[in-house]
Target: Aspartate aminotransferase family protein
Amino acid sequence: MSHVFPRHTHKPPPTAVRGAGCYLYDADGKAYLDGSGGAAVSCLGHGDAEIIAAVQEQTAQLAFAHTGFFTSDPAEELADLLAEHAPGDLNRVYFVSGGSEATEAALKLARQYFVETGQPQRRHVIARQQSYHGNTLGALAAGGNAWRRAQFAPLLMDVHHIAPCYEYMLRAEDESAEAYGLRAAQELEDTILRLGPDSVMAFMAEPVVGATLGAVPAVDGYFKRIREICDTYGVLLILDEVMCGMGRTGHLFACEADGVTPDILCIAKGLGAGYQPIGAMLCTGAIYDAIKDGSGFFQHGHTYLGHPVATAAGRAVVRKLLRDDLVARAAWQGDRLSAALTERLGQHPHVGDLRGRGMFQGIELVQDREIKQPFAPEHGLAGKVKAAAFEAGLICYPMSGTRDGKNGDHVLLAPPFIISDAEIDELVDKLSGAIDHAIGSAAG
Ligand code: PMP
Model:
């Protein structure tokens, strides 16, 4: 009997024993092409000798020094690298151990900033429906995924959710993309005005929505308008790039493509590329200075903040991304992946939409393309695609939408940036087979 408490208690998973390049291998020797980098984590693939060496060297040199007493070279140097390459004046970096810790810290920093700058009445957070910001209570409250929240709702703080910018389902037929973006952003202003502008502390959003919608970027102009609205009312803009950041979309930071700089930016996943658990929250010098000139102490912390081995892994990952031009590779190999998906699935009767940026692509499955009607939830289509793909030796990330705001089933792809042309072909082959198999069994 296994004593591990697995995610799905009714179906224990196979044992993964080895990773190499874009593949994982289980104890029976079966190979799985990692088409989703787990969950948008393994941007460099598996078994990267350079990152492994960096982790080994740091472990031998200094495995741990508590940040209550010390800083460390890898933490300092990784922060320098991130600050140098981050947009605008996001020049202070707070290291944590993962995505939920990053978004949780961002919410607390926003609150402390207003307390320390004499605006303690600012307490409301606005976020978006069909978003995911993590599973700890604050992050879960900010997220707008009804299914994940349902049983914990009584424990969650009150967050106000507006609609996401989700062109495929929410743009009206006679509306231009630009007009739709402005309409979607207007919901933020309306909500701020309804709550009282002086009472809102932050708006949180993913620049490209990952798990919950499936690689959905905003239309051009949406985030620029969001930035303007936040500035008008003194609301902090928190962007969650836990999934879409660190080069995945073909920009080191996804918000660069939208031409905006947030006040606080959250990253994780690709930062450690799976070699170490690490996340980070970047904030502007202005926010940092408010804390420095106030109490001088961010009232937040975890034992493993700025962990030397985790930051050494992050430092090696970022150095490699930059030195080997892997962000540009994510952009052009992403275009190739997108073209291969369009060629194979563009006319598929149950593929409603193909979208994404770089190595972050989404496929939306619908029962009826004409009217964009999702499959009924009882089909459990996403789960069937996942199972059929896994059986065929492909790891992809399908999710069933919660049907709030109409979204149905989608598949998220987030392969390693090093994926080859032949591996892209294998991915698309196996995925389209799995989709057909799953739809066949959903219909039957
Ligand atoms: N934010 C986003 C956008 C995510 O996709 C995730 C994880 N899927 C998280 C936050 C939470 O990250 P973690 O699972 O590392 O806590």
